Amino acid sequence: MTPKDPGDGPLIDRCLGGDLEAYGEIVDRYSGRLINVALMMVGDRHDAEDLAQEAFIRAYRGLGNFRGRARFSSWLYQITLNLCRDHLKARSRRGRRMEEEALESVAEGGDAVPATRALLEAELSETMRREINTLPFVYRQAFVMRHLQGLDYEEVAWITSVPADTVRVRAYRAREMLREKLAPAVDTYWREKAAKERVR
Length: 200
Known about the structure:
There is one protein chain. The protein is mostly helical. The chain folds into two domains: about 1-100, Rna Polymerase Sigma Factor, Chain: A, CATH 1.10.1740; about 110-200, Arc Repressor Mutant, subunit A. It is built from eight helices and no strands.
């Protein structure tokens, strides 16, 4: 595993030298990824943005402790997942129910998707997001990091501090749980999609 992502080494060195602009470049490079991970873990965009911001603050404060034993991005993911876990524990203690993420706006442009089809796909996407958020934390993080972020099992293992075989099992079980939970929604989606296409 390569310790540093392309370009991270010089940026980290500049940060350690007190260059705040370099850290801004790191934030620009990774903010989208950290927000997406946090969103899939906690289910609320506002909370996800706050957690990503806190992750960057903690990473900056602890930058001198980064030893390069894993990718810098993996280190950021690890900080983010730890913050998400703590956040969910605190939220559970307060007895708050998890808020659902609003539907993402449908992208416009070139080959526009018909409104009815776009709505069905958005509903399926919302259902999937909701079901991912019901997975137990350890399965959710394995699924999100492996299948949504596309990391290999060894990297997820480093981030989550468990053996790669455990990550593999957790990701598999998460997929099976989601398949069972989403089957009715997927069946409904395809039936409604077929019906709309017959009407056209």
